[in-house]
Description:
- This protein has helices spanning 9-18, 28-35, 51-64, 79-88, 99-119, 146-159, 176-180, 200-204, 231-244, 258-266, 278-294, 316-323, 336-343, 347-350, 355-365, 377-393; strands at 2-5, 23-25, 42-45, 69-74, 92-95, 133-138, 164-168, 208-209, 215-217, 247-251, 269-274, 301-308, 327-332.
- By secondary structure, it is an alpha/beta fold.
- The protein folds into 2 domains: 2-119, Response regulator (Rossmann fold); 133-393, Rossmann fold.
- The chain binds adenosine-5'-triphosphate and magnesium ion (MG).
Amino acid sequence: MTILVCSDPRSADVLGTAVGGAHVVAHLGALRRHLSDSDDELVVIGPDIDLAAASEFAAAARVDRPALGVVLVRHRVDTGVLGQALRAGFREVVPAHETQRLGQACVASRALSEQVRRAAGLTPATTERRRGRIVTVFGGKGGAGKSIVATNLGVALAQSGTTACLVDLDLAFGDVAVLLGLFPERTLADAVPMASSLDAAGAASLVTAHASGLHTVLAPAEPRTAEHVPADLVTRLLPLLAERYDVVVVDTPPAFTEHVLAALDATDELILVTTPEVPSIKNLKLTLQTLDLLGHPADRRRIVLNRADAQLEIDADDVAQMVGASVHTEVPADRTVPLSINRGVPVVLDQPKHPVAHAIRRIAATLDSRPEPPPDPVRHRSARRGLRRKAAVR
Ligand SMILES: Nc1ncnc2c1ncn2[C@@H]1O[C@H](COP(=O)(O)OP(=O)(O)OP(=O)(O)O)[C@@H](O)[C@H]1O
Ligand SMILES: [Mg+2]
């Protein structure tokens, strides 16, 4: 848990989001009280806290509690502030408006704390490493609504106070940036040079924050760049993100690509999106059969019937009968969805009381951050090899 010292609620809100969720205390006295009773390893000191008092705290912590990282946020960072911060032993000094950098500084500080603990022979702060839930949104048919579900789900989670990161694995034609009205300044393409050595700080450097508090790792802006993103990168990236966020949502292309298979290996919950149309339901059935072949456990799948419409004569029961598995949630068809796309504002933000938003929040409410252990990787991998062989024969 990150402890944020900040007496201004608005700054606390912005900074808390930037660090991926924090316990906020209003002054240094409250911080000392909190720390006396916890083994937290990261303190962020907000720009409204007096520098001299903050420096005194950091200098004392360096001696009394060397594994504790203290990051200082200031409205203005000049040589005077930097000098004082250096003498006091702050891990980093970050300008208040550079929220992205603050997130990265926190990840780097946590990694350093772990090194300090290991070097000092101390036990880890928590006996178990924190591990958020990886939720992949998939569907074998293009246009079923995977990206709509994934983006709205990510925002709904962030709004509920869950720290969430949405990864766009539709590498060639990913829509997450457009659906959230984000500019893809950093994307998965930036991870290519550090693919084999990606660490927590590297993963954090890929993140683009959305105003809702949702963090994202966007798909490359150029479809051609997608070819250079190795599947191994996904294998490294998702668990790193899961250490930082309560839930990592993964949006996917409509095919079992190498990247999707890598994501499935790490997935705790799989959301399968279909529409009430025969081709989409047929593909759902094929997808379920393929997942069985891959050894993916059926109890970790949820079927979402998107664009449900009473006039279409195919309802959730019909879908369940056709595919042999029940529908978890129905998301109604409504023109508010394309309208929200054109505005670049997800429905859960734009129209939080709309039935589409309610349906998405129902899905979000059933996802918590305590996953079952991931599926047996050996069984999983051998099934994948079989699948690849079959694909090669075709
Ligand atoms: N519940 C809904 N009601 C009305 N329209 C919807 C709904 N869900 C999705 N759509 C429409 O379907 C289109 C496709 O949705 P989306 O992009 O989420 O599909 P996708 O499965 O991610 O597609 P792709 O496989 O191409 O990535 C959207 O542009 C939107 O207009
Ligand atoms: Mg999509």
